[in-house]
Amino acid sequence: MASTKADPRAVTPGETPPADRAGRVETHGIDFIPASERHGRARDLFAVWAAPNVSYLALVVGGALILMGLSFWQALAVIVVGNLFSILTGIVAASGPASGTPSEVITRAIFGIRGNRVNILVTSWFISVCYLALNWAAASYTAFRLVERFGIDATTPVKVVIILAIAAVTLAIGVYGHATIVRLYQPLALVLTLIFVVMAGYVLGNADWAYQPAESLHGIGLWATVAAGVSIVASAPLSYTNSADFARYLPATTSPVSVTAWTALGAFVPSVLFTALGALAGTGLDMADPQIALETILPAWFTPIFLLAVIVGTIANNAMTAYSSGLALQSVGLRLRRSRSVLLDGSMGVAMTLYALLVSNFLDTVSNMMQLVVTVMGPVMAVYVADVLWRRNRYDGLGLGDETSSSPYWYSGGINWAGTVAVFTGIAAAALCVAAPVYTGPVANAVGGVDLSLPVGLIVSAALYVVLMRSYRTR
Hints:
Layout lengths: L43 H10 L2 H12 L4 H12 L2 H14 L3 H4 L1 H4 L3 H35 L6 H21 L1 H29 L12 H21 L16 H27 L7 H6 L7 H30 L5 H21 L3 H9 L2 H18 L6 H5 L15 H17 L1 E2 L2 E2 L1 H5 L6 H22 L1
Antiparallel strand pairs: 1-2
Helix pairs in contact: 1-9, 1-11, 2-11, 3-10, 3-11, 4-11, 4-16, 7-8, 7-13, 7-14, 7-15, 8-13, 8-14, 9-11, 9-13, 10-16, 13-14, 16-18, 16-20, 18-20
């Protein structure tokens, strides 16, 4: 497929076209971004990905690795390896400028025009809404604690107001869209980093650099814990199959290597630093309840600032999810403007959050389900990356937008069976190897509980896709 070439009317890198200007509602949805409206530099992507990864969740994951029985240095190795999957996030992002379309449209090249609707409905839209609910629940818990510090009783009406307020801010950013996210996340990343650096000083003062777990792990037990830890850490970068959404406005001539590098670094660097900080905190504190543990070492004046940073960081993460979930609804075939599709997804996410926090233990059920997300998202990410490399990042942006049988991505009856078979085979192979609280596959049982779902799912799906696409090319 030929790549879409930039035309001479393209704006200069410093210009911002009216259709994508910070502070204005973005007018584009899943449609092709013409060369005349392309703008920006690859390095802008660093802050876009750094802001949501300077997060409280990273501290929680780091502390959890210590609770699982790893030493600090073992946990650090797991953190680095798990975050190396950010390279895949970066490779996917490079397809954005090449096609001028979001990830939700680019995957039509993998699954076909019709087949992609099923893929997006399950692997993008549904999981995005679940993540919205989970993140809003986490931010709301923190906000409940924050208001109580100011003497306000967190009654049910107060909780409802807090949940709605957090959702409103998140959805506002998602509705305003791409340019607002790029502009807002640069100072936001700096502020959040400063706050967490101050917190790091208190953590370092209470860390036990000579820490050793009460019972050191050895043999199969160690490998099982390491595999589980890598899967937990890698689940974040593997879920970002939407990274092209935030790169598609860059000029088509932008270096794919630069897009890949700045995206990957933006996700990798802060995630490694702050997850490692959480692991270090776990050497001196009981991170079973991270918020309470951290508050015991933070001064009274700084604790509200820390809690507010947790809320803001979660909002930054969720705004990107809300933005992409709106694009996902459009790509499925729902004829709504992007801003309205974001609000629709947000309403569903709010309803799930209210139910989770105020009615039942639904949150536990969703959390257990998300532990199996790697089983699904790993093969999808692997096939996406394989497609980018197999095509040498050449996509026909206008052809991707053509949903008729004349589209170059129509394949057979609107379905590319190479992508469909590869993903389902990869998911099946990963399911045989998964070891999670809700389900353990027969292969995982046979090898002593070592979870091999991540490497197996990635390798099987990517290899099978390339083999099947070579056969398609020959035909």
